[in-house]
């Protein structure tokens, strides 16, 4: 199957899942995760009708997006990797949205870089809902982190991102996504970014508005 066919099939499956859980007509964004895929996957993703892509590594993204990040400007670019404060400037140059704000220092570094660049940066709080995950703010600290982010004028808080338990049994995944949804309800915003290749169905049922899908669309990661 081509990438375009896989995107179309995933779109249909998501719509069927939405209908099956009483969310018919809801819009769920498919974020194509292109990390460790060759650069031409980005143009294929755009041609397949995706509007959003995600990358985890600054150096890899800089190489793939091209000088100044101007290539692929039709795609909304999301940073979904761990935010190192010394990379804040590069992240702001390369990305439209940062989904992985998990501590005040990351928010402050990005706010400073965005403000220096004269732009507003869309951000999500990354919440930790899984013992196997190293990063993310504990759910009970999310509201305080949200206050910090809201106090920084160059950041626009759009919602919450979380990574489900990758080795978990289904009930464990459902429980974890429930925590993400509850945190999203407290934090506010329009984007609940949960669900990946192996658990997007559970995520849709928990209220996901954005699934981040890599291998199911683009195959095994290569580079
Ligand atoms: C790699 C990655 C994904 C995509 O994972 P797949 O299992 O390939 O769909 C989604 N979100 C984050 C944060 C990732 O690092």
Ions, cofactors and other ligands present here are: pyridoxal-5'-phosphate
Strand content: 15-25%
Topology as a string of helices (H) and strands (E): HEHEHEHEHEHEHEHEH
What is the overall number of helices? 9
Task: From the alpha carbons, calculate the radius of gyration and give it in angstroms.
Answer: 17 Å
Characterization of this structure:
It is a single chain. With 223 residues, the protein is of the alpha/beta class. It has 9 helices and 8 strands. Strands 7-6-5-4-3-2-1-8 form an 8-stranded parallel sheet. Helix 7 (170-187) links the parallel strand 6 (155-162) and strand 7 (191-193). Helix 4 packs across helix 5 (104-116). It starts with a helix and ends in a 5-residue tail after the last helix. 43% of the residues are buried. Bound molecules: pyridoxal-5'-phosphate. Residues 33, 35, 56, 80, 163, 196-198, 212-216 line the site of pyridoxal-5'-phosphate.
List the helices and strands and how they pair.
Layout: H1 3-20, E1 29-33, H2 40-47, E2 52-55, H3 58-65, E3 76-79, H4 88-94, E4 97-101, H5 104-116, E5 121-127, H6 142-150, E6 155-162, H7 170-187, E7 191-193, H8 200-205, E8 210-213, H9 215-218
Parallel strand pairs: 1-2, 1-8, 2-3, 3-4, 4-5, 5-6, 6-7
Helix pairs in contact: 4-5
The structure holds pyridoxal-5'-phosphate.
